[in-house]
Amino acid sequence: TPLDRIRNFSIIAHIDHGKSTLADRLIQRTGGLSEREMTAQVLDNMDIEKERGITIKAQTVRLDYKGHVLNLMDTPGHVDFAYEVSRSLAACEGALLVVDAAQGVEAQTLANVYQSIEHDHEIVPVINKIDLPAAEPDKVKAEIEDIIGLPADDAVLASAKSGIGIDEILDAIVARIPAPKGDVNAPLKAMLVDSWYDPYLGVVILIRVIDGSIKKGQQIKFMQEGSVHLVDRVGCFRPKIEQLADLGPGEIGFITAQIKEVAQTRVGDTITDAKRPAAEALPGFKEVQPVVFCGLFPVDANDFEKLRESISKLRLNDASFSFEMETSAALGFGFRCGFLGLLHLEIIQERLSREYDLDLITTAPSVVYRIHLTHSKTEPATTIELHNPADMPDPNRIESIEEPWIDATIYVPDEYLGSILKLCQDRRGIQKDLTYVGGRAQLRYELPLNEVVFDFYDRLKSISRGYASFDYHQIETREGDLVKMSILVNNEAVDALSMIVHRGTAEARGRGMCERLKDLIPRHLFKIPIQAAIGGKVIARETIAAMRKDVTAKCYGGDATRKRKLLDKQKEGKKRMREYGSVQIPQEAFIAALRMG
Ligand code: GDP
Ligand code: MG
Fold it and tell me: Which residues form the Tr-type G domain (predicted)?
């Protein structure tokens, strides 16, 4: 395809503003799918994505429109996948900015728009859902101009649901988004945008060709990874797979090269010709690192092998999470896993329980701490990275601890502002900016990531009745007054419940945990103290009173079957308990205690 006939664009939208619906409409209008095939949203092809309405893996579709090839790049819609988003955006020259005509501009939209602007994109605003009675397109236009600073005069008014404005959008893409540039005679240079495992094709690699061309039978080299492969398929999605003879400059499509694991295909890598390589790799390659860690343990210890297999399988298709074996006195054998963020953690956890039918206990999520250690008699001074509170070194050797900080943007209607400010303050936030736009406040805070992985998002949503939106990126690590808080049940520390907390918030966190455990752990024949402690110092305490001697006493010895049933029920319950300091702790108690941090 000649360069001037190509347009590459992505769609930026806040969750639920209509990105997937619009994408489906564009595909339908340009003939990719018939009405009958449009039953399900095409671009969201994983169950979890569909249920939550979020896009996790980028997909791309080639559309034919009035003699032009339009490549629609769907980008992941969540902050956890920021790097993948940045690579998808780097593969395009423009973007449709879809804003819900009734909801207006949201914080997450902003972050993506700014990224898009950074990539020099031509942005075409689309005001969607104008069919809604609550639609206020003029107000939204003003917001786009005031908040984002983009001219919105020629914003396209559309309803993806009713099919209004679809041709106008396609025409705007052709007229306003610039054609890509590139040199067909230069050595091959293509960006690896995304990859996934397909049971029939093996690893499928989504690429954007910058210079040169790529075809079947060609020997290619991944410049960052350093590996060489033989291309065995070249094609595109319409969204059905279509094989092509080659992909030239400016084009987006896929290749397969008999690659078995996605871990070998790193997003952002440069693909070049093995025999005639490009002089230098594309800029912007970044190694993605997990930022949130937690332990995953099977509820039933017999499921450990099954968990190992399932995690290994998931990892085949998602190289961005890490895992290694972990043992816990309380929870037995499991895995310490690293994720890009909390949503990523939830996705993996949910897939393990749904697709692999595993009951899991997840320990409290932890961020990565940098711990500076002084020298000891036997070891020199050093810095370590701590992923697991249970591995906290001897406090006497700790010189200082650094924790990761984020820059967060929160967008919230005025009426909830007070409570949100208090939440951020309670979480050690530093306010950077507060501006008002059309009855809503835009807040910028620097926050320790540690305080965010601990239920921040849930609190934000509940305080604002779901109206607040939240977006963040990591900025740096800063020294903090951090300590390991242990939870003791009947005077024994339960490793799975220990966490790293800021000294200033330790007491409140400890008290909360003790109170919850008091309700969650059943009574025993003896009194059970539950304590939160830092080092040897108890900072919070609750006591579970002793139970009356005989549970069956209340049966008055009369009804034998009823008595037996009660005993059986007790036995049944025991199987799902872990004994700790001679206290039986039900699995549910761990799950519930940890869920709330
Ligand atoms: P995404 O999260 O941005 O991909 O949003 P979806 O495309 O999944 O749409 C979210 C919800 O809005 C769905 O229930 C859609 O049916 C609905 N929706 C999308 N476009 C329109 C529209 O133009 N009008 C109305 N009334 N609803 C729409
Ligand atoms: Mg969607």
Answer: 4-181
Confidence bin at 199 (pLDDT 50/70/90):
confident
| 3-state secondary structure (DSSP) of residue 250 | coil
Is the ipTM higher than 0.95? The answer is yes
118: its two tokens:
């950074």
- With a 6 Å cutoff on the Cβ, whether 204 touches ligand 1 is no
The two tokens of residue 216 are 């079947």
Determine the atom of ligand 1 nearest the C-alpha atom of 24.
7
Q: Which residue has the tokens 């398929």?
A: 233
Q: How far apart are CA 284 and CA 286, in angstroms?
A: 6
Which is the closest atom of ligand 1 to the Cα of 164?
23
Query: Is 131's C-beta closer than 6 angstroms to any atom of ligand 1?
Result: yes
Map residue 591 onto helix, strand or coil.
Answer: helix
> How many Å lie between the centroid of ligand 2 and the Cα of residue 440?
25
Query: Residues 6 or more apart from 105 whose CB is under 8 A from it?
Result: 14, 99, 140, 143, 144, 147, 148
pLDDT digits (tens, 9 = 90+) for 245-289: 999 999 999 999 999 888 889 999 999 999 999 999 998 888 878
Q: How far is the CA of 61 from the centre of ligand 1 (A)?
A: 19
Q: Is 7 in the pocket of ligand 1 (CB under 6 A)?
A: no
18 lines ligand 1 (CB under 6 A): yes
116 Cβ below 6 A of ligand 1? no
What does the H/E/C string look like for 293-327? EEEEEECCHHHHHHHHHHHHHHHHHCCCCEEEEEE
For the residues 501-513, what does the mean pLDDT come to? 91
CA dihedral 38, 41, 43, 46 (to 10 degrees): -130
Q: Which two tokens stand for residue 54?
A: 């979020």
Give residues whose Cβ lies within 5 Å of ion ligand 2.
19-20, 55
Q: Does 17 count as an annotated binding residue?
A: yes
pTM to 2 decimals? 0.73
What is the spatial order of strands in the sheet that 189-198 belongs to? 228-230, 219-222, 270-273, 189-198, 202-211, 252-256, 233-237, 241-243
Is 121 annotated in a binding site? The answer is no
Write out pLDDT tens, residues 370-417. 999 998 888 899 999 998 888 899 888 999 999 999 999 888 888 899
Instruction: Kindly tell me if the per-residue pLDDT of 36 is higher than 70.
Output: no
Residue closest via CA to ligand 1's atom 11 equals 16
Place of tokens 């977006």: 471
Specify the ligand 1 atom closest to the Cα of 44.
Answer: 4
Ligand 1 center from residue 65 Cα (angstroms):
23
Structure confidence at residue 337 as a pLDDT band (50, 70, 90): very high
Ligand 2 centroid to residue 19 C-alpha, Å: 5
CA distance 229 to 222: 8
pLDDT (average), residues 439-465: 86
Query: How far, CA to CA in Å, does 330 sit from each of 175, 250, 308, 520?
Result: 63, 55, 19, 16
Q: Is 159 in the pocket of ligand 1 (CB under 6 A)?
A: yes
Instruction: Kindly provide the b/e burial profile for residues 143-170, where b requires at least 16 CB atoms within 10 angstroms of the residue's own CB.
Output: bbeebbeeebeebbbbbbeeebbbeebb
| 21 annotated as belonging to a binding site for a ligand | yes
